[in-house]
Amino acid sequence: MIGEVNIGDAKWFTHNQKVSFFDRKLIRNVGSRIAVFAGVLSTFLTFFDFTSSIKLFLFVLVLIVSIFIYIHTVYVENSLSQVTLTIDDSDITIMEGNIFSKEIYYDPDVIKVFAFNEYFDTIVDNEIISKKSLNGQFIKEKVSNVSELNQRIATDANLEKYIVGTNDKRSRGNKTKYQLGSIFKYSDTIFLTALTHFNEKNKAFLSVQDYIRFLINFWDQIDAAYADRTVVITLFGSGITRLEHKMFNSTQILQIILWTFYLRRIKFTRPAKFIILLNEQTNKNINYYKVKESFYDLQK
After folding, report:
1. Rounded distance, CA 274 to CA 276, Å?
2. Nearest to 179 by CA among 221, 144, 151, 138
3. How far apart are CA 290 and CA 258, in angstroms?
4. Could you tell me the pTM of the whole model?
5. Mean pLDDT of all residues in the chain?
6. CB 172 within 8 A of CB 128
7. How far is 30 from 76, CA to CA, in rounded Å?
8. Considering just the CA atoms, what is the radius of gyration of the chain in Å?
9. In a 10 Å sphere around its CB, with 0-12 CB exposed, 13-18 middle and 19+ buried, how is residue 178 labelled?
10. pLDDT tens for each residue of 2-55
């Protein structure tokens, strides 16, 4: 399991590493910078008549410095705990945080988004909704009248446009099914979105195609509703361990979110920005170097 970086721990390179010590892109990027330095030094030496021993000393010195630079770079990249990308003039920050913190949840200029299933179920019983899940915590701690919430969802004019069917066979929970990516405005700053399908055994499931479809629909609706405010989401889909029977790690899920954001050409004009909050364990698992490299050419 990936843990915190500790330089003094000899196990760091094998157990705590997110960026491989022999990562090809990192070797290429650092190597190109070192090559430039070595080239400048080589040119400098041609103008002076140094003895062979001095030249050997300088060569060894450059080698040692190069190794130190590379090891330091690997350490720095593995130590990253957040990153800010600028894509199409939109600032995107990925960081550790709690969506229920006072600084975020009660900020009137920040939209908070909570993921629900396609029925917008509200029963928190560890069967339909887990008490430990974010939407479970939201319902238990922030919703004073659940029956009223269900009524508002059932009669919401915006959601009516995204109804895809009803399931009268459900004995518990809501019966109306909504398109993935649909958004219900609980308040001016709290949005709920339909993220997952839900089967007859009350288990969430999602194919890769459905996940991408959800994100595209979600971006389109957010673009129409965010009103130049900052939008905060969590790592949508990270709790679903299998997408179409294929394992996706947190870094890959994050990359899918960012790529669909880019493809939909959403723009959060400053000072508004887009924030993806991660819990402590997920944040430790994110390969921020890989994320930065994936979107390097898109940076402004």
Report:
1. 7
2. 221
3. 13
4. 0.79
5. 84
6. yes
7. 13
8. 24
9. buried
10. 333 333 333 333 334 576 666 677 677 777 777 776 777 677 667 766 677 877
